[in-house]
Specification:
Elements: H1 7-12, E1 15-17, E2 23-28, H2 40-49, E3 55-57, E4 63-69, H3 73-92, E5 121-122, H4 136-147, E6 156-159, E7 173-178, E8 181-183, H5 193-201, E9 206-208, E10 215-217, H6 227-231, E11 237-239, E12 244-249, E13 262-268, H7 270-278, H8 280-287, H9 297-304, H10 306-313, E14 324-325
Parallel strand pairs: 5-6, 6-7
Antiparallel strand pairs: 1-2, 2-4, 3-4, 7-12, 8-11, 9-10, 12-13, 13-14
Length: 354
């Protein structure tokens, strides 16, 4: 039976077109990529009832359920309503004080209302990882009601430490958990373990003073990774209680102009990060004259210019005393047409040994 298929409408509803005509893939949001295992039964039910029985762990940590016929989308959305209400409303919208913003009203009865703000991805963070400086999925859940739902596109990745396992440098708005360290010289035994750890795995800012037997630090280049804390056997290094973040801006993949993001904020508190993100939709609307297009954040920053972006995104944001803001940013993109002056290699067959 033939039917009209509105691909654009389905895509906005978070159903991606398949190479098989008439089939779609549902992308279920999982803010921060962390979820109660009980919800796996929901994924199984949708996949086996309306899909082809399979699902994919999406690159943005969504549950991607494949092989859903277009005609099954209304039934999937009806079943999905409870999941959305529990995951998006209960997990991400219950503690309004943490985001200082009323949740944007939307009814999940018809499924997801937009694909604009992509699922916020995160590494496991300090819920499990010994390297991490922050709880990444808790931060993701605080960000979720700020950016979603929205037709303005943004990709946000959160990494628990400067190892950046979650590729904060390759998205529109990358957030990295960093820590400021306190040195306790009275505990230091002068073993140099922290110096070796910093030398091997970080920015080599520590040195052992042979006269005093104590550690000296070039604080200007410390990236807040916490390797010194992990390495010290005497707890001479400890993380300060305040959580800090580094924000990376304008990174992206893609065929034409991929690039690594650059540092925008350093040593910012959680409230500063959330406050800046509260201005994201306003900035996006200004750039596109209140007419959303399918353009991600890095491209919008390019349109506005960094100076204008900084002005709008930090409007009304009270920076903490430690926070540093990039004066300017100069991105370096990969150019495919101008870097090479080599003629294509001609291919020909040669005769083999007779």
């Amino acid at each position: 039976m033939n039917q009209d298929i509105n691909i654009k409408k389905a895509r906005t509803n978070c159903f991606r077109q398949s190479k098989v005509p008439g089939e779609f893939m549902l992308q279920m949001r999982v803010p921060g990529g962390f979820l109660d295992a009980a919800y796996l039964s929901v994924i199984e039910h949708i996949a086996k009832t309306w899909g082809d029985g399979n699902f994919h762990f999406g690159t943005r940590q969504t549950f991607d359920i494949t092989g859903i016929p277009y005609g099954n989308i209304p039934a999937v959305n009806a079943y999905l309503e409870q999941y959305i209400r529990e995951v998006d409303e209960q997990l991400c919208r219950v503690d309004l004080d943490t985001v200082s913003q009323e949740p944007q009203p939307w009814d999940p009865e018809g499924g997801y209302p937009t694909i604009g703000a992509r699922n916020i991805t995160a590494c496991i963070g300090n819920y499990h990882c010994i390297c991490a400086n922050c709880n990444t999925f808790e931060l993701a859940r605080k960000i979720e009601p700020i950016i979603f739902p929205s037709h303005y596109h943004i990709k946000i990745n959160i990494a628990g430490c400067p190892n950046d396992c979650n590729k904060a440098h390759l998205c529109d708005f990358g957030i990295i958990g960093v820590a400021k360290m306190t040195y306790h010289p009275e505990r230091c035994i002068g073993c140099g373990a922290c110096v070796r750890a910093c030398e091997k795995g970080s920015t080599r800012v520590l040195s052992l003073n042979e006269n005093t037997g104590k550690i000296e630090k070039d604080a200007c280049c410390c990236i807040g990774c916490g390797e010194c804390v992990r390495a010290c056997p005497a707890s001479a290094w400890t993380r300060q209680e305040t959580k800090f973040y580094r924000v990376i801006l304008g990174g992206r993949t893609g065929r034409q102009t991929p690039r690594t993001g650059k540092m925008f904020l350093n040593w910012a508190t959680e409230e500063v990060v959330l406050s800046a993100l509260r201005n994201w939709q306003k900035f996006s609307a200004w750039v596109m004259d209140y007419k959303p297009e399918y353009l991600h954040g890095g491209h919008l920053i390019d349109r506005a210019g960094y100076k204008k972006f900084k002005e709008l995104i930090l409007e009304g944001v009270a920076l903490n005393p430690e926070c540093l803001v990039a004066e300017d940013i100069f991105w370096q993109e990969t150019e495919y047409r101008s870097n090479f002056n080599v003629k294509p290699m001609s291919l020909h067959h040669t005769a083999g040994p007779q």
